Each structure stands twice: as structure tokens, then as C-alpha cells.
Fold each of these.
Amino acid sequence: MSLIFLAYGISFVMLLKQDKRKSYIFFAIASIASLGMFFYHTDSTLNLSF
């Protein structure tokens, strides 16, 4: 989870540095990882309810 927040943070920093391409790439990586973690936990044995 910390890697996801790190990727969002890097995306924000790249946006401030006016590097939109890298910002979009890191934002996409973080978003895909967030969705992957969501779908993983919906089927886990932890009984999490979303």
C-alpha cells in the first residue's frame, strides 16, 4: 500500500515539475495497483466488506 501512495506522490511531484508524461505514467501505475489491491481484497479470506 505504501508503494501505491509513493507512486501517487511521485506523480504529483512530476506534475509540479511540468513533466506531464511521467506524471500520467505514475498515476496510471498507482491507479492500476489500487484497483488490483481492491479486487484482491474483495476475494480474500479477511472478510472485508467494501
Amino acid sequence: MKRGGSNILLIEAIIMTAVLSAALSICLTVFTSASSMRREADELSRASSLAFSAAQCYVATGDEAAVSTMMGGDGGDICIDGVVLSFERDGSELIITASKDGRVIMTQRAVQGVKP
């Protein structure tokens, strides 16, 4: 009789260990994806802020080389905190592309005299 009771206790312990292991696996997956999403949100926020600042500089100056210099560059593309801002003129517009590791994060258009 005692032997049957200890078998049930052992089976219950094994089942509870399996359930807790499954719950732990799910929680770790959720935390990992949340961390990845946080990193991506930080990149987007940083890129958005830098592109908006560059657009405001272009509105004020009207010259992409001046924008690069004002943002700490040498008159061409600039890299700030791993985010590369590149500038391309399209008529009266300046297209500012923010990228990281060769992946475009966002694009901002600016027209001289028109607030972004």
C-alpha cells in the first residue's frame, strides 16, 4: 500500500516538473522577443530623432553639405551611434535615409522653408 502511494507522488512530481519546464520555456521565449523588440524600438527612435534633426537643419540652411557639417559630419554621409544618415537631393527636396548595418530604418523628406 505504501509503495503505491510513493509511486503516485513520484509521478505527480515528474508531471509538475514537466509543466514548470514548459512554462519556463514559454516565459524565456517571451522575454527574448521583448528584448529584441525593445532594441528595434530604440533603433527606430534614435534614427527618427536624427533624421528629424537633419531635416530641420536642411529647412534652415538649404544645403545638404551644411546639414552634414552641422550634424558632425564632413559634408557627406554621417554615422552617429551606429546609425548612418545619407543625403540625396531630389529637386528641391532632400531625402534623408537612416540605416544601420546596411538595413534602412527610415526615410525622411525635407523641403527648404517647409517645416518637417
Amino acid sequence: MNRIGYLSLIFILLISLFFRLYVNYFIPINQQGNLLVIFMGLANLILIFYIIQRLVNYKVGLLAALLYAISPWTAYLEIAANSYIILLTLLLVLYLGTQVFNISKKFSLMLIFFTIAIFICKFNQITIFSDVGLINTVNSFRGEINQTIFVPLGKIIENRYIYLSEHLLFNTLKQFTPATYFTNQAQLLGFSNASPIYLGLIIPFLFGFIKFIKSISKSKISEVMIVIFLLLPSILSKDSPDLFRLVLVSPIIFFIISNGIYEFILNYKRKVFRFLLLLTVFMVILQFFATLSDIATREPVRLQMFLGQQ
């Protein structure tokens, strides 16, 4: 990487720090420990850049780092001192280590899986089984079927194990819904109106996702398994999709979007790609400044209302 690349990375780090301090000024969510997590977020940004630089090139790495820097998703979770930001740092370090030391993909998968498993078990993060509503729903179905002639069949069909399996499948599918990431359907920290990722980035995301799907081969099944492992904490949450836990998969989403934007840049001479690139840049800049305005004017009120309901 040349000098301009390094200066660009420093500039992105400054943008990231400014954005987080800005959010923290208007929405003081957690004053204890958030400064440390903010600096770990900056470490995540550097790690994401370095990993993607090794996988593709430094330009895609810079784009992914910029997306991490300006995303409300990562900024909000860092100022809230979310423990999954710390877990993300650990996973990025582990993944980079497996690249640097040429560790086998199978061992890398096992390392990532056990790290996530130990974390969610250690801190009692498997909450899907404590969902009272889930149990009440099963009991309600059993009560209704007990009033019919199909009582024996009901014991087989309407039981907590089958219903839990269906619920797990539904939770899994929700992790792949674009609305979860590009709209405010799942509110950040339970009160925010900001979307985790700016809606203007959905076009390059679709292009990057198609490119990612086409590149998948038998040798890259390990990458797919990593995505599944990163989704597990959110799938096992009673509040799924859980943006606190889904932040683990954010670097992959930023990588996919960056690939899409880079595709637009490479094909800039073609009118269609030039239009899509300019449209994406315009929409993201517009949404970014609209988000800054919303944070300064409306988000503090939403936070107070949210705290008043607790």
C-alpha cells in the first residue's frame, strides 16, 4: 500500500472516532467502560482493513473500513460498551492469526466455533430457551387440541421440541432478511430510529452478494460455515434478530458491500455502473448527514422515552 493508502486509513480512523464521540455527546448511553470499547472498535476497523487487504486488495479494505467507521450499528454498540464488540475483536485477531500462520481451514473453523460457544455459554447468552412466550404458545396449542378428538396426535405434533425447532428455523431465516440490516425494523439499542446500515448501500450489497455467491466453491465452504457460526448467538437469542449479537457478522456484510462498490469503480466508464456509483454515494452522504441531524435532535428524546419505560 502506498502513502496515500496509509493517509486514507488515518483519515478513516479520525472519521470513526469523531462519529463515535458525536453520538456519545448527544446520547450518553454508557459512560463506564465505553471509551475502552470505542478504542477496541478502532482496532476492529484496522483489523478489518488488514484482513480484507490480504484477501483482495487495500482499496476494498479501505472501503470496508470506511463503512465500519460511518455505520450507526457499530458506533451505537461501541458507545453502549457492548460485549460483542470485544468478542468481534477477539475473532478478528484469531482469523488474522490463522491467515498469517497459514493454519488449516478446519482448525480455523473449530477455533472460531469454540470461541463463540465458550463466550455464549460463559455469559449465559443462550436465551431462546427462557422465552416464556414460546412455552406459553406451546401450552396454548396443547390446550386447544385437548378439546378435540386428536389428543394423542397433539402430543406428537404440538410439543416444545418440534415448536422450538420451527422457531429456530424461523430465527435463522430472519438473519438473512435485508430489512434487518438496512432498515430500522430491529431498533438499535431498543430505541433508535437509525438503520444499522444505510439503505443507500443495498444496491452495491446486492452486486457484491451475487459476486460472493458465484465465487463459492467446495474450497470456500469454510467461509460459509464461518458465517453460520457468527450468526449462532443471534439465532439462539429470544430477541432474534439481535443486533447486539449480529455485529459479529458486520465485517462480512461490509466486505460484500465494498466488493460491490469496487465493482462499480472498476466499470466506471460504463454508464450503468457510473450511475449506480453516483447514486450510492449521493444516498449514503444524504443519509449520513440526516443521521447526524437525527442524533442531535430526536435520538435524545427517544432515549429518555425508552429509559422511562424500563
Amino acid sequence: MRRSFHLAIAGALLAATAAPALAAPSALIKCDGYGRRQTPGEQVGRGILILGTLGLFGSAERDQPSARLKGDEAIAACTEALTDSRTTGNPVRRAEVLLMRAGRQFEMGRFEEAIADARAARSVELTPLVRSHFDRNVGAGTIMLEALARLSQDRQAEAEQLAFQAANARPEGTFMAEEALRIMQLTPLITPDERALLDRLWRMMPNVQPAAHHEGAGDWAAAAASLKQLAAMSSKPGVGLLARMAAVQALAGENDGAAATLARVAQDLDELAAQAQTMTPEKAQTARSQIANADELVQLARAQLALNGGDLEAAKGHLAGRPRWLAPAAIAAPIIRNVQAKAGSGAAPGIDPAKMLADAAKVRRDGLTGKGVLNLATVLLPRWEDPDVAQDLAKTMLPTSKIMQPKPVRDGAATSILTARTMASDTAHEALLLAAARAAAAKGQDRFAVIFQFVLPTTAREGLANRLGMIEFVTPADKLFQGQENRALKVADIEAALGERYRVPEPPKR
């Protein structure tokens, strides 16, 4: 009897303990995978936006991103979540739910409904100080989603205008700018807005993107100049970059430069092939892929160079034997078209340059309007990030901190700063940029040029996030700066744009 009683009590206690874990996720969790968040508040005395302890409406609930629903089920869950006290009592949380519902409307092809939800999210009532922070994250996300919806309606001009607006919400960030440029790249014409974003990214995060846009526009001289400057930032540029540069130089008519680049990449390819013999199977496979891709671009460069020199048979020979090309269509198609125009249909038989370009354009567009963009629309677009993240980062930039401190790299030719914490991707870019500016100022320099920047991506409640970030830069005191001076950023400009946001909060007054 006593044993049965104890077993009954134990069973009841176990059931009571297990009940919360077994409870079905709420509509809020089914909508976007997250529970309540604190309501934004203002501490006017310091003029810094902080999160208060007010507004924790509704019960706490474990975050479960895997519990998100899709399609109409998600729309229904988000609609129900809008009646939850955790959203009715918190305008920021309500905006996040509306943004997720907008993404799910987009998923179902209901673009006007998606736009309406995005605008409703952007229009929640907020105090001015909270609004200024909101517009840099959730607000920017709503604008970009509206841009994607307009693009899906074949309203390219409107999509570009909205995307540019979203990118300008955080001018020292890179994520929204990169997404905006993906939309703008769908047309070959480089607009003034597109050029402005390309220049901004080229200064903050140098990569092949500006060259790719110039290639799409057929501006080979500009593309070649961009690639040459990019190669100069590395003591050992990759074979893919050099091979691409050779092809673009040939298209630009820079015959001597292309020939010199081809000789350089040929040696590097030979060395990489030899190294692959001693690599692990996984690394060897990567090396073989790099070699194959570079070899295609090398053949294209040689074909264009032969054509430039009037050797049609050699040009045809370099294109022979390939049923398809994996090189960027913006490079491969013009070279094949050029050879076919001079050498006739016998050059690269079965290859239609116009179709190559059309197929590439379709893939790019599908990536922004098809199923491939849903992860961006529902998970990666910026959500709210607590303002005290920036304050915490400011502390790590102090000389007394042991993290985010400048260190010499490249045998002292440049300086590097590293950050290793989870934060919104654009926050990481801003923080690294400001840390570089402050490090340059500490050296008595008024300018610096970024020669490398990256963040290791992950996903978080804030949207696309950073796990690890690094920036490498040079100042006028560094020899490498001479080749990068036209990309320099002024320390005063970066401090003026970001300094107030990333500063150590003052101790409370007693």
C-alpha cells in the first residue's frame, strides 16, 4: 500500500515536471520560433537607447526556431500571434511577427499582402530614440522584403529604389548593400545608386563584386583595374582571381598585361597541382576544382588574346572541345561571341553566347524571386538587436581590453583586429570598421584602407549573424597603403558615423 502510494506521488510529480516541456509551442513560436522580448525603453539622461525591464508581457517560452511553420499554416500562426500579449504589449515584437508573416505571404506568391505586412511592421508606434535604432535593423528588413516583392512583380526600378533605401539604413554595414546589389545586377546598366554602393563596399570589404558588375556592363577596363587592385592586396592571390584577371585584361585590350598575368597564373597552377599530390583527399579535391575553374578562364583569356592578335585558328583552338563552360557567363559569352563573329560558326560549335547570358540572368533572378530567396526573407533579414551589444563592443575596443585589439600581420605590413562573439552581421562589420579607425588614430594616422574583411556567418534571433569577424587594414605609414590610397577611409568620417553608437556608457550618477 505504502509503495503504491509513493509510486503514485512520484508519478504525479513527474507529470507536473514534464508538463511544461511537453506543452505544444504557442502560435508565437510557430510563427517565427521565438518567444517574448523586453520592451525598448529610453534613458534620456545618457541619451543612449537601452532595454528596460518593463513590458515582459505574457509567459516565458523556450525559443524553438525548428518549430516554425511554413506557408498558410505559418500565416495563420503569425495572425494568431498578433493577439498574444507578448506582441500587443510590445511594438518591436509585433513588428517582428508582421515581418515574418510578410515573408510567408511572399512565399505563397501574395506579393501585395507581403508588402502590406512589411509596411505595417515598419509603421508600429515607437518613440523617436527607439525608432532610430529600429530603422537600422527591423525597419531595414521590411524595406528589403518589399523590394523583393516588387522585383517579383517585375517592377525592377521600384525594387532597386527600395533596396538602395534599405542599404542606406546602415551605410557602414555590408549585408543590406550586398543584397541591394544583387537586385541591381539583374540589369547590365550601372546606375548612380549602384555605383555608389559598389564604391562603398569596395572601400569597406574588397572582393570581386565590383569587377562582376563592371563585367556585366561590358566595362572591361574598370573590371581589370578592380581585379588588379584586389590582387595587389594579397601576397599570394588565388589562381582563380589571377585567371579571371587575365581574361578581363584580354577583353580590355591590355594584351601585355594579360600575357604577364597568364605567365604568372601558369606557374601558380603548376605549383598547386604539385601540392595537390601531397594533400589530404578533401584538400586535393578542392585544389583540383580550383585548377579546373582557373584553367577554363585561362583558355578564354588565350582565345581573346589570340583574337586580339589576329590569329583566328589559335582562338578557335582554345575554345574547341568544350560542350559547356563553367566560367562566369559575363566573361565566357563575350569572348566566345567575339571569336564566332570573326571566325564563323565553326568556332565553339553548339555554344550560344546569348543563351549563356540568358541562363545566367535567369539563375540570378530566380535566386531573388524563387524558392532560393525564402531563407533570406524569413530568417536572414535583420530583426531587433539589443543596443547594449554596441556598448559592450565599445568596451572591447578600449586599450585596457584583451580582445578586439590591433595586432601586426603580414610581417608588419598591415594590422589585424579580430572579434569572436555572436552579433548581427552588420554590427560586426561596423564594429570592426570603427575599431580599425580608432587603431589608426592611435597611431597618429588620419586615414586607413581595408585590405581584407570577413565575418563567419550564422543565424540568430537578430537575423544573419556573425560568429567570427576579422579586418586587416593599412595606414599611410604602411608601404602597402600606396597602392590603396584611392580606397582610403577617413578616421574622422567613421568616428562621426559610428562613434556615438559604439561608446562605453557613462556610470550612473549617484
